[in-house]
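can u do me a favor
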């Protein structure tokens, strides 16, 4: 099973039910260290926080296909998931990491510039940003 922080079309139950056979939504959540930007498709860039929700599924491969990971439209990253209220969510969501899909704003037609504060490939910049900026997900309503 994989837990994914979703912030765009994958927050919509009817949309996800057309894509996945097995899934459940967890509680609303926030991802600290990013903000949502919209282009042809939404993505996240360095910022304060983005609201979303947790999605649990054994079908991570189907999500990779949907997000165009093989075409490098989006890349999947693991980030810490902090549940400061243990026992308040179903145990399947009481894990240490969540996956997140992030697309290169230039590829997705986002006009707002993104400052990753690193050099190298897009994936290297995002990975370095995640590792050096305390990026994490927590359950909405719990403290940062």
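np, heres the sequence
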């Amino acid at each position: 099973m994989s837990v994914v922080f979703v912030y765009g079309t994958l927050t919509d139950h009817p949309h996800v039910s057309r894509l996945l056979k097995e899934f459940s939504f967890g509680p609303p959540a926030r991802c600290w260290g990013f903000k949502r930007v919209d282009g042809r498709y939404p993505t996240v860039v360095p910022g304060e926080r983005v609201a979303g929700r947790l999605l649990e599924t054994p079908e991570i491969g189907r999500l990779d296909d949907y997000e165009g990971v093989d075409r490098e439209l989006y890349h999947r990253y693991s980030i810490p998931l902090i549940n400061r209220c243990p026992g308040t969510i179903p145990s399947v969501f009481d894990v240490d990491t969540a996956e997140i899909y992030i697309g290169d704003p230039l590829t997705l037609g986002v006009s707002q510039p993104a400052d990753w504060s690193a050099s190298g490939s897009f994936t290297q910049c995002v990975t370095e940003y995640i590792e050096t900026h305390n990026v994490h997900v927590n359950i909405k309503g719990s403290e940062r």
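The first strand starts at residue 2 and ends at 6. hope that helps!!
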